[in-house]
Please model this.
Amino acid sequence: MGAIAGTLEGKVALVVGGGADGPPRPGETVAMGNGRSIAARLGAAGASVAVTDIALERAQETVDVIGAGLAIRADAGIEADCRGAVEQTLAAFGRIDIVVANVAVPGRMPLRSQTMEDFERAMRVNVTGHWITAQAALPSMLEQGSGTFVFVGSAAGIQSPGRSLAYEVSKAGQLALMRHIAVRYGARGIRSNALVLGVIDSTMVRRGFGVDPVAEAARGSVSPMRRQGTTDEVGDAALFLASDASSYVNGQSLMLDGGTSIAWPAPSAPAPAP
Ligand SMILES: NC(=O)c1ccc[n+]([C@@H]2O[C@H](COP(=O)([O-])OP(=O)(O)OC[C@H]3O[C@@H](n4cnc5c(N)ncnc54)[C@H](O)[C@@H]3O)[C@@H](O)[C@H]2O)c1
Model:
């Protein structure tokens, strides 16, 4: 952490869905998800961090990991909550420099069984909530002439695992939102990029796909690097996109997948469910 100390001194970050909800790794006292790891990295780099979560205690747990910050209860699927989170961040810290759009609900249904309710929930949380948050944060960023958005994307927004229609469509939509901001507001000092995650050993994946050794080994076999990514690696990449180290990077999807997306044939992709 030493090398990053001070990188974000004086900056304020809002991490949307920055708690963690899933089984910890063996030996972990606090379960580490992507959002929590990103929030911790930004905090370690000197940023003041506001963390939202649908469950206040999960946001607070992240603030406790950082050692300071603001925990906000907000449902990313509710417009008033998204706008309220931005207002609370501005009230507490006076500015917003970084917005991390982390939260996403996975969805579970292929086309044949896809329901409206599941589809609309995924779109509301994974796309609508993030554009509302961006819209609310933008005026203060435009006024100060700077700001960065980091979207936590998924390879499922670029390639199809054939599992969840709602998740795949919403994660593709999230990348369109990321590019729109980059193009529309780039000339005014606003940057917008995405981390596109492959298989990361995170709370979301452990919760969704299990923690038994067979499942773990299968996940580890997908990438040419023959291991899952770590939440530390997600945190480091997010810090890069959030900081001035990436000052001319705009509108990009940074693949964090160990090379899975460029391998042909895929090393050992598990078959989609029938
Ligand atoms: N782990 C992977 O391999 C992988 C792969 C691709 C993409 N991703 C992306 O990573 C992100 C999530 O990762 P994580 O490990 O932080 O997940 P996580 O499931 O631990 O979720 C983080 C937090 O989001 C909160 N949350 C759920 N619904 C919410 C809502 N409506 N409003 C506000 N908060 C809500 C949960 O309470 C939880 O604390 C998603 O964008 C996902 O698409 C992960």
Residues 17, 19-22, 33-35, 52-55, 58, 75-77, 102-105, 125, 152, 154, 197, 199-200, 202-205 surround nicotinamide-adenine-dinucleotide (CB under 6 Å).
